[in-house]
């Protein structure tokens, strides 16, 4: 595999010779109308951080010329290319010009001009210039009558290629209606648009990498660290970059900045550039920004990788992966086998990522070569791979290997549990524990360490020798139904990892003892604050908003972005635990159900759950879907903003419960009266009313009229998002 850092191939020629412009010894940062920039001239930003000019790349035996921007002192860091999909022959005498109409374009022999900016119209103008700024942005601006720079007409930051510089944006541009996104190079030496794109999804507030338009990886959900600064589940917290989410008149977007104290320490001259690599990951020089290396669609390594349908053969042969090796494929006759060739998805231009997909989807394929061009070279059939002693560049291939065991024959519950435990143990996040370790951690399960009773038995607080605090759920030996919940919880939560779900550290099976070991939540459950008059005042409005949003993010993961679609079925205040930072985490998956990814609803004859949080269709007909959890979430929202506990009493003459009372107040334009009195000094009224409106939309009688959790998050986070018209409220809330 190529180096993570964009290093130059031995056959690549980059012509970067800092020469004078227009006979001057000082490099200029501005191109005025009527001037040209030829292949031996450069624009250099005022503080000489960035350079704009022509450079050449060898692609095979062909030498192509491009106009690009790079860090002046690090010419390998090409951060923007004007003509990535229209390379120019190196001998075509190309030059950049800003003509009398204000058009910025590349002209060259033997072809039509490449227009970068088309100007403001057909009339002649003499009041524009193009400037290379010290942030790497190339800007076309109006020039005022006094010579000062006026309004910006075009900028390269709005047309990114594969690189995100500090201050650049990913997201939706409200002014133009376009999306800011990155597109990878096709191959190491070919800057043409490649297989991968990096986008920002404003609704889910996550970064997404797509391969040929299909989700490949996501940053997953986020944790706010300050006003607009966030951490993401699958992006490394580098310690020197702030990840920023913003919504303003210009758009909804993600960006990042370098912390001042690290600008010279970590990156000389403040040099930083997120580059979407042609094989998928994001690198900043030699630093990996995201935790993913490759995605195979299994969802076992996760690290943000999406799960997708696999060719049946790949599952049948055991879970496989590609490994870069040096050697040759040999036929049954002992002779070196010839490679087959093919194209991916009828593409006229393909890169290594396409060849990887072609081989992966061909059940006969054993490996492929990372050649670029219009065809893929791969090996198939009854062949064996013989590694050589060296590491010859001409012999490098990507070979399929069996890395993970198949779970095809998992039938009894204990088998998937143990397989899951072993797999997660392999990934370093889960372990099988001995009973003596639990006894030592909990002082032999003494009453003093007991935290309470869970769905299938007591819960104890423990401490490991290294100081880590844990919570131990112990299955009651006489609990028949508890065993069902125990099995269900272990099978599910071992496969689910998210910052807003309680984390499972391990499990213990020894004799009759069965235990689950979780992270300890020092602030216990949400209901211990909400429904306790002596503690509810500790939850100010900002904290309650954060809790609501964190529960929603956890639900979004369960419903949409986890490797399994999961319906929790018991979402309530006592199942929302709070860590030391008051971050909300969903717990207790004993009654959760795995749902088909494309399933709309299912039916059960056994009604389980908590009265007061059940949706009407489930309580009366046993029908459940993700809208069950939405209903429960609506109840939770009302409880959080009001500080009042739901009442499970149902009366045929109308709702007497807390939720019904909230709806009644809403209809009488008195919704503000539902507010917890302790919030009167910290709660903006417009936001309170918006949250109550969203909550009531979750409590519609018809499941079809309730929003999805994605829509809920959009309404909560975006104050300009339209709110639904409330229809028929649920008359049954128990």
UniProtKB/TrEMBL annotation:
Keyword Zinc-finger: no
Protein name per its UniProtKB record: non-specific serine/threonine protein kinase
PROSITE patterns: BULB_LECTIN (PS50927), PROTEIN_KINASE_DOM (PS50011), PROTEIN_KINASE_ST (PS00108)
Keywords from the named record: ATP-binding, Cell membrane, Disulfide bond, Glycoprotein, Kinase, Lectin, Membrane, Nucleotide-binding, Phosphoprotein, Receptor, Serine/threonine-protein kinase, Signal, Transferase, Transmembrane, Transmembrane helix
PANTHER family from the UniProt entry: RECEPTOR-LIKE SERINE/THREONINE-PROTEIN KINASE SD1-8 (PTHR27002), RECEPTOR-LIKE SERINE_THREONINE-PROTEIN KINASE (PTHR27002:SF1063)
Sections of the chain in a coiled coil: none
SMART domains referenced in this protein's UniProt entry, alphabetically: B_lectin, S_TKc
Principal place of residence: membrane
Topology in membrane: Single-pass type I membrane protein
UniProt domain Bulb-type lectin: residue ranges: 28-153
Residue ranges of every copy of the Protein kinase domain listed in the record: 445-726
Localization in the cell: Cell membrane
Catalysed reactions, as listed in the record: L-seryl-[protein] + ATP = O-phospho-L-seryl-[protein] + ADP + H(+); L-threonyl-[protein] + ATP = O-phospho-L-threonyl-[protein] + ADP + H(+)
GO molecular function, one term: ATP binding
Key word Nucleotide-binding present: yes
Transmembrane spans: 413-433
Signal peptide region: 1-27
EC number: 2.7.11.1
Gene Ontology cellular-component terms listed: plasma membrane
Gene3D superfamilies: Bulb-type lectin domain, Phosphorylase Kinase, domain 1, Transferase(Phosphotransferase) domain 1
InterPro entries documented for this protein: Bulb-type_lectin_dom, Bulb-type_lectin_dom_sf, Kinase-like_dom_sf, Pan_app, Prot_kinase_dom, Ser-Thr/Tyr_kinase_cat_dom, Ser/Thr_kinase_AS, SRK-like_kinase
């Amino acid at each position: 595999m190529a180096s993570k850092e964009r290093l130059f191939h031995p056959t690549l020629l980059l012509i970067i010779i800092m020469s004078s412009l227009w006979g001057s010894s000082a490099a200029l940062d501005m191109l005025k109308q009527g001037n040209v920039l030829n292949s031996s001239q450069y624009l250099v930003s005022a503080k000489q951080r960035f350079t704009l000019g022509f450079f050449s790349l060898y692609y095979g035996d062909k030498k192509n010329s491009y106009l690009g921007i790079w860090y002046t002192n690090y010419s390998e860091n090409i951060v923007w290319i004007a003509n990535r999909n229209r390379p120019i022959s190196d001998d075509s005498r190309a030059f950049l010009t800003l003509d009398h109409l204000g058009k910025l374009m590349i002209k060259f022999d033997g072809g039509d001009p490449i227009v970068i900016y088309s100007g403001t119209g057909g009339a002649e103008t003499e009041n524009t210039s193009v400037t290379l700024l010290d942030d790497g942005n190339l800007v076309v601006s109006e020039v005022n009558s006094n010579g000062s720079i006026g309004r910006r007409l075009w900028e390269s930051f709005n047309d990114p290629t594969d690189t995100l510089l500090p201050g650049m944006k990913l997201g939706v541009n409200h002014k133009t209606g376009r999306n800011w996104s990155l597109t990878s190079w096709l191959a190491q030496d070919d800057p043409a648009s490649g297989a991968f794109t990096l986008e920002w999804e404003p609704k889910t507030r996550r970064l997404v990498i797509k391969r040929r338009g299909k989700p490949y990886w996501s940053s997953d959900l986020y944790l706010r660290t300050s006003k607009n600064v966030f951490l993401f589940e699958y992006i490394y917290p580098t310690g020197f970059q702030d990840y920023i989410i913003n919504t303003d008149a210009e758009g909804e977007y993600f960006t990042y900045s370098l912390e001042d104290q690290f600008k010279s320490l970590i990156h000389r001259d403040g040099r930083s550039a997120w580059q979407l690599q042609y094989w998928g990951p994001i690198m900043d020089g030699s630093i990996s920004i995201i935790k993913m290396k490759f995605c195979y669609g299994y969802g076992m390594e996760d690290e943000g990788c999406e799960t997708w349908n696999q060719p049946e053969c790949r599952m049948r042969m055991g879970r496989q992966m590609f490994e870069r090796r040096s050697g040759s494929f040999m036929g049954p006759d002992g002779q070196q086998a010839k490679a087959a060739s093919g194209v991916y998805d009828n593409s006229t231009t393909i890169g290594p990522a396409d060849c990887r997909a072609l081989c992966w989807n061909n059940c006969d394929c054993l490996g492929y070569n990372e050649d670029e061009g219009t065809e893929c070279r791969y090996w198939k059939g009854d062949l064996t791979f013989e590694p050589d002693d060296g590491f010859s560049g001409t012999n490098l291939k990507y070979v399929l290997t069996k890395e993970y065991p198949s779970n095809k024959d998992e039938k009894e519950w204990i088998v998937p549990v143990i397989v899951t435990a072993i797999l997660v143990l392999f990934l370093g996040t889960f372990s099988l524990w001995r009973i003596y370790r639990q006894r030592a951690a909990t002082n032999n399960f003494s009453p003093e360490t007991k935290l309470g009773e869970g769905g299938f038995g007591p819960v104890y607080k423990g401490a490991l020798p290294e100081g880590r605090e844990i919570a131990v759920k112990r299955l009651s030996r006489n609990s028949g139904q508890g065993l069902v919940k125990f099995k269900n919880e272990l099978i599910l939560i071992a496969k689910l990892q998210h910052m807003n779900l309680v984390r499972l550290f391990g499990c213990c099976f020894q004799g009759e003892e069965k235990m689950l070991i979780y992270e300890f939540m020092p602030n216990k459950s949400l209901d211990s604050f909400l429904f306790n008059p002596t503690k509810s005042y500790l939850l100010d409005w900002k904290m309650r908003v954060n809790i609501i949003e964190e529960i929603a993010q956890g639900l979004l993961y369960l419903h949409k972005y986890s490797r399994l679609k999961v319906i929790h079925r018991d979402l309530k205040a006592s199942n929302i635990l709070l860590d030391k930072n008051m971050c909300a985490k969903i717990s207790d998956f004993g009654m959760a159900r795995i749902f088909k990814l494309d399933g709309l609803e299912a039916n059960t004859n056994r009604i389980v759950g908590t009265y007061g949080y059940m949706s009407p269709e489930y309580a009366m007909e046993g029908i459940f879907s993700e809208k069950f959890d939405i209903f429960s979430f609506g109840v939770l929202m009302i409880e959080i903003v009001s500080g009042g506990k739901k009442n499970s009493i149902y009366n045929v003459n109308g709702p007497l419960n807390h939720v019904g009372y909230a709806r009644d107040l809403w209809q009488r334009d008195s919704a503000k009266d539902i507010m917890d009195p302790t919030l009167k000094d910290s709660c903006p009224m417009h936001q309170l009313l918006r949250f109550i409106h969203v909550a009531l939309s979750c409590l519609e009688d018809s499941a079809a009229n309730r929003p999805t959790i994605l829509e809920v998050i959009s309404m909560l986070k975006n104050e300009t998002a339209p709110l639904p018209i409330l229809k028929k409220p649920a008359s049954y809330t128990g």
